[in-house]
Please model this.
Amino acid sequence: MKWFEMAAGRMSGVAVRSGEAGAKGAIDAIGAIGVAGWIGVLGAAWPLNAAAQAAGTEGANFIYLVRPGDTLIGVADRFMAQPARWRELQALNKVADPYRLPPGMRLRIPLVHIPVTSGTARVVFVTGPASADGRALQAGMELAEGARIETGAGGTVTMELGDGSRVTLPPASRMEVSRLRAFARSGLTDAVFGVGQGEVESRVAPRGTGVGRFEIRTPSLVTGVRGTRFRVGTEAGASQSAVLEGQVQARSRRGQQAVVGAGYGVSVSPTGVLARPAALLPAPVLAPLPQPLLASRATVSWSPVAKAAGYRVVVSRDAAQTELLSSQTVSAEQAALEDLPEGELYLGVSALDATHLGGAGVVMPFAVRLNPPPPFTLEPERNGTAYGETVTFGWAEVASAAQYEFEVAADADFRQGAMQARSAAPSASQALAPGRWWWRVRSLDAGGQPGPWSEPGAFALEPSPPQPRLEDDGGDTLRIAWPAAGAAGAAQAYRLQMASDETFTQIVADVRTETNEGRLPRPGSGTYFVRVGREGAAAAATNAATNTATDTASVSPAARTHFSAPQRIEVKQYVRDAQGQPVSAGGRLLNRAT
Model:
């Protein structure tokens, strides 16, 4: 079941007659849409301005609340097409003296005697899929009487009437503008909307002008707005209304009636049975959001409400929540907010009971700041490996950024060992210990105000690869050694390569060793290059499994060895004696070339 909230223009001071039987006479066109019930709203303590005397409709009559000094002839002249028919008002309302009307009297005026003009409705807000008569809606469009409006999943639309009243359709709703007019002499709204699916939210006459007629009709209920705030929803022919302010009078198609006050709700079954009013659930207590929220998404949570079967969560651009950016129903005490735009927004949460009656909601303002935008991270690569004791961080330059702030931590939540620093350039260096780290960066504007963080990126930091050195004893092999890495006695795996070119496209030798030295077959005289790398766990496992010194091209990127910078060596062939040992003279080995 879905719900909608009618935030009607509040009219203070309407005299309440709780024992009044309600409307008499038929409600025009109700039979055509299968509606057999109605809701009337009364208020308390009548104010003394002419506009506020409008009390909406009741059945086939408009209700006017008499103020001091009113006469029957004056009221007829203000509202009726033929003021001379004031005597019909006298008979209908059983008025003894047409010149002396008691203040606060509920004077009935037949709607058929009130002239009307064409009304207007303008689309003021649209998000997601929304259409009228099959045409996609856009802000600024005018809607005419008879328009059929639909919203798809994730779509909302808000239209505004001539008196400032707003009607909002949340996602997956369908509504017809059955009547769109205004009382000719007073300019009061005369509007009727039929809801065939989903929900409707309304805020009626917010300028305090009062309303002639403003009705929301469902297959089993008619709600007439006269200064009361309430919610109405419909599904499978059943309807429900939750009263948040004021009072309503409900009547089912079977003739059952109930006066429903603030804090209570009532439902009508598809067969027209009116249930007893039930107390509404209280508003949840929301956990605060960061202010401002530096992200386009957030998770909001609240305290559980006893007997709640679910919760309705909406985000809007206005405090009255007539311009909905999103609407969802959740079963747990938290919800994910996605695709939040920058600016001042409002979060609304209300509890739903087992019968889907919505309780009083809570509305919390919050701000979203998305500028200056976060930079794109460049290095270290996401899930990559850096080497050495100092890491260089790099990111793309943001035109609107005056400087940048980057953060490094030992966990993805940036709570363990987090360190922050600022940089005027799109790069910075930070000394770190070997291990796994996460980093992110954000832009700062000229005032030092930050934008959102970039997505965190993880990387591994390993010590720099050892630098090899040649130890040539003139034998058949070349001994290449390097400083040992890691703690004494700790097992290490290294990869030693020699090539005839600095880019190592022509590899002469490629061996794997678990000590900090290796021996390579002596090649012919010439210039060669050697390099050594400490294998990561993935590379070591791959090579150990195959028991071979594989070429780096055959190992996956995650398993490749990070090599030291190439070292240039000169290899010579030496003169040997009969036993094959190198010959020396003056303490130096004799080179065959000499």
